[in-house]
Design a protein that fits this description.
single chain; 371 residues; mainly beta; Neuraminidase; globular; binds calcium ion; Glc/Sorbosone_DH; Glucose dehydrogenase
Amino acid sequence: MFLVAFSGWVAVSTAQAQGVRSEVVATGLQNPWAVSFLPQGRFLVTERPGRMRVIEADGRLGPPLPGLPAIDVGGQGGLLDVVVDADVAANRRVYFCYSEAAASGGNSTALASAALAADNSRLEDVKVIFSQKPKFASSAHFGCRIVEGSKDGKPDGTLFLTLGDRYSRMQDAQKLDNHHGKVVRINKDGSVPRDNPFVGRAGALPEIWSYGHRNLQGATLAPDGSYWTHEHGPQGGDEINLPQPGRNYGWPVITYGENYGGGKMGEGITAKTGLEQPLHYWVPSIAPSGMAFLSSDKYGKAWQGNLFVGSLKFGYLNRIELNQPFRGKVMREHKLLEGGGRVRDVRQGPDGLLYVLTDSPQGRLLRLQPQ
Ligand SMILES: [Ca+2]
């Protein structure tokens, strides 16, 4: 214990040595993508092949919930994110996104709202409140993380949704007449907030919040209410960004990554006037998925306020220390759960503990217990 008396670095190392114990809450989930939290300790989980289930507090899996819309499952597509309304205990609303097929062919990311029946047995009153335009034939880069916005410390009734560039439509990310490679912001009924940055601009889709993104599979609010995302780079150059209204995050004009097989992307540059720099980038890519700030003190002071990001590629949970205030820099990164498989999602539960989903045909819901 006397080690703690030394520098902050040593204190952090000690906490890491003490580590956490990962406790299996549930198993037998097929490629789970997202976990959200229901009243009475229950969980709401999506599986990419097109199922949503309630998991009981004791880990028992409920049957697939009836009521989902048609989902275009394949490749990276399927049933992806789910979040519950900030007032779910009263209104039972949940929001989920998925790959939606067009009758004419192709697909895109769609966002739906539904009410979870009081007995948790089915989804009711399902409404598709947003569909990414245009539909395009691709099984890649759906983006699809949902976050409810906040103002003055309270949920503000808007939803941020991340949208991928569909891989081969990367040039669209620089244009405002489509939803490829964008963050969009809508109201819960699907209408467009009047204060969105491109409302009223000719030729621009009014749902767009920020653009020049690639494939964003992580998004969250920081404790100060700011909106954070991460996105996959091409080969290297995964990024963390704090998307601001109307700003251009550069893809594919600037990137710290390379073409697959080598060679510089685009103009081969990493910076350009008018294009935003990421807060942080990873070379090589970690293939990030899931993103959460830890606001609770359950794991001690060293972890409070840290950012957690899953790595699909290397199979670990990344604990990220940031300088203060939050709009600063990444100071240190620490690997947790190494060897435990691809990490698809991470969230803080209402109990202040971290929950993780592993991505495999036999995926698991894990709870991290401090020790
Ligand atoms: Ca960028």
